[in-house]
Amino acid sequence: MMDGTYTFDLERIFIGNLPLLFFVEVVMRTTILYMWTLFMLRVTGKRGMGELTALELLIVIGLGSAVGDPMFYPDVPILHGMAAIALVVLLHHATVMFTNRWPRAHDFVIGRPRQLVADGRLDLKGMGESQISREEIFTGLRQERFRHLGQIRRLWAEPDGKFSIVPYEAGDVRPGLPFIPPDDVEASVKHPAGEPAPESHVFACDYCGFTEAFAAGEVLPVCPRCEHDCWQYASDEGVRSGPAPAAA
Ligand SMILES: [Zn+2]
Predict the structure, then answer these.
(1) Can you give the pLDDT at residue 246?
(2) Ligand 1 center to residue 228 CA distance, Å?
């Protein structure tokens, strides 16, 4: 305990030894830190926030320390903590109103859905922008009981990190890149570019999911879409019998 203080000193607990004008400083500190943290959350990490948007996470962080510090530290007056809490809530509401009015601000603060799969193939640009790996996408799809990319018409990553999936209707499923984990006994064999196709089959690019039919003995090229140099047999699970589409 600090010198010259005694327990249950109400003035110290609520106001502290600081001049009243320090409230203005608390307001300034809170506002600057709120803005700065929001900016850093959006710039550094679009992911890794669990299921919270940056704005929701900021409320948790901001209220957490504003509530916690006056609980333990004898020199942090409760009124300063209360001012910071009220201000964090106020700033949150102001930011929500602001982002509702300005779509560009909404995109920056909240984010927008990013396309990760289109027409049975990975959207490499959307993956780069959202910093989401193909393994994360495949994990999400496996959890929804899909077996290959040819079953997926669209997949978006929502701002809270969840995936929205639009599968193909039963008749529209096409051959696609299987995403069975590589250790599984059913995992398909990889066929490097430059080697002949062992049999006539629809092949899927092992990286982006681009599909193309190659005849037996035809030398496999690099993927014309992403230049990756490895193929797998495309899975035709769920594809209606009949003339299968040769390419996606
Ligand atoms: Zn590819």
Answers:
(1) 53
(2) 5
Query: How close is the Cα of 231 to the center of ligand 1, in Å?
Result: 9
CA of 160 to the centre of ligand 1 (A): 28
For 142-162, what is each residue's pLDDT tens digit?
A: 999 999 999 999 999 988 778
- Model confidence over 205-223: pLDDT tens digits? 999 999 999 999 999 999 9
Q: What is the pLDDT of residue 213?
A: 97
Q: Which domains does the chain have, with CATH numbers?
A: 10-109 (no CATH), 114-233 (3.30.240.20)
Give 147 Cα–ligand 1 centroid separation in angstroms: 18
Instruction: Please tell me the distance between residue 122's alpha carbon and the centre of ligand 1 in angstroms.
Output: 9
| CA separation for the pair 106, 103 (Å, rounded) | 5
The rounded mean pLDDT for the chain is 88
Give the DSSP per-residue string, 57-126.
HHHHHHHHHHHHHHHH-TTS-HHHHHHHHHHHHHHHHHHHHHHHH-HHHHHHHT---EEEEETTEE-HHH
Instruction: Extract the residue ranges of the chain whose pLDDT is less than 50.
Output: 1, 48, 248
Ligand 1 center to residue 48 CA distance, Å? 27
Q: How far is the CA of 165 from the centre of ligand 1 (A)?
A: 21
- Half-sphere exposure in the Cβ direction for 71 (13 Å, CA): 6
Model confidence, pTM: 0.73
Cα-to-centroid distance, 170 and ligand 1 (Å): 25
